User: Fold DUF177 domain-containing protein from Sellimonas caecigallum.
Amino acid sequence: MFIDLSDVLSEQHKPIDVSVPLELDEMKIPGGPYFLKEKSPVHIKVEHVKGKEISVTGECSLIAVIPCDRCLEPVDVPLDIRFEKHAVTGKDQAEQTEETEESDYIDGYHLDVDKLLYNEILIGWPAKVLCKDDCKGICSTCGQNLNEGTCDCEDTSLDPRMSVIRDVFKNFKEV
Ligand SMILES: [Zn+2]
Ligand SMILES: [Zn+2]
Assistant:
């Protein structure tokens, strides 16, 4: 979704205050793509500051589906995105000042809402996601989700000499 900035940049500098749908529905980042759901509309305000400089503020809430770090089960992670930015419109990069930042979400006189939100979601992306604090993870041998049950894999962390004894016991049981 693009917002036309010409009203803000016109002589009257008419502010924009709109709610628009977020079309972005996945994050294509390493380990992903990660899906986004239950997205609220993006409430966004654009105001003129000076010259070609504008302020862009807004908010959006959504749920990112991210696999648990230990067991890989998908976890619904609510994200509340709030942003307040200063940007320079037009193609005159020379006007970019210290207060403004690189604004790849502005293309000429259009603001790309999805690109802006993509950047903001990335900034708010959680570093670690667990389905629950005491997630037991998965067996490294067979992939069994250890929250759902145990498996019969041998614990390879045991002393290898012990496995000889275990084999003896196994053979004994089979008799
Ligand atoms: Zn887990
Ligand atoms: Zn296993």
DSSP finds three helices and nine strands in the chain. The chain has a mean pLDDT of 87.
